[in-house]
Amino acid sequence: MNEVKHLNKLRHSHIVQLVGSYIQGRTFAVLLYPVADLDLKDFMQEIENVLVPHRTIDYGSFMAIASLGRFFKCLASALGYVHSQTTKHLDIKPRNILIKRSRDVIFGYQVYLADFGISRSFSPTDHSQTDAWVGRTAKYCAPEVHWNESHGRSADVFSMGCVFLEMQTVLCGHPLDDL
User: Fold this and answer.
1) Which region among 39-48, 127-136, 148-157 has the lowest average model confidence (pLDDT)?
2) What is the pLDDT of residues 116-127, one digit of tens each?
3) Tell me: the pLDDT tens digits for 17-45?
4) What is the pTM (predicted TM-score) of this model?
């Protein structure tokens, strides 16, 4: 239900859109657009498999690499928009960033910030601080989140920075295991 509340108010070209929701038996489900082809973790792994052994790059791989380079601006814009709508994502990681192959050959792939299941709203006057424990992925969480301290939007920025570091590592032809 939390994800539905937040996605209802978020309209951005790099954020998944809520199409609908339903309950079937004891299961609550949301319908999102677009239907992704893969997530950023798998996308980076595909690129790493081409770049790390320094293989000859075919056109499809070139488009994937070029798209990954474009994703920095797209994701920064999406996160800035989320924060401008008085929302904190709280679980930014490659598995929560979705990739869709574009029908437009020029763009190759599109990127979407997803999974607002544990996101929180804040009022502009409370400086966006969160005191409650939130779900987290240790590899991507800010130190203050790890230590269960009060944290603001900067924790999302830290998490996105961790994702950006992984993206840049792949683009430089190094394996993610080096991090």
Assistant:
1) 127-136
2) 777 777 766 555
3) 999 989 999 998 889 999 999 999 999 99
4) 0.89
Query: What digits encode the pLDDT tens for the residues 54-100?
Result: 777 888 889 999 999 999 999 999 999 999 998 898 899 999 999 99
Cα within 13 Å of Cα(97), Cβ side:
26
Does the residue 18 lie in any domain? Answer: no
Q: How many domains does the chain have?
A: 1
Dist CA 85 CA 10 (whole Å) = 7
CATH number at residue 99: 1.10.510.10
Residue 10 lies in a domain: no
- Name the residue range of residue 105's domain: 36-178
Contacts 24+ apart (CB under 8 A), 102-109: 105/63, 107/67, 107/70, 108/63, 108/64, 108/66, 108/67, 109/43, 109/63, 109/64, 109/67
Cβ–Cβ < 8 Å for 30, 3: yes
Q: Which residue has the tokens 């798998």?
A: 42
* In a domain? residue 27: no
Q: Is residue 22 part of a domain?
A: no
* Whole-number Cα distances in Å, 61 to 42, 65, 142, 172: 14, 6, 32, 14
* Tokens 């070029």 found at: 66
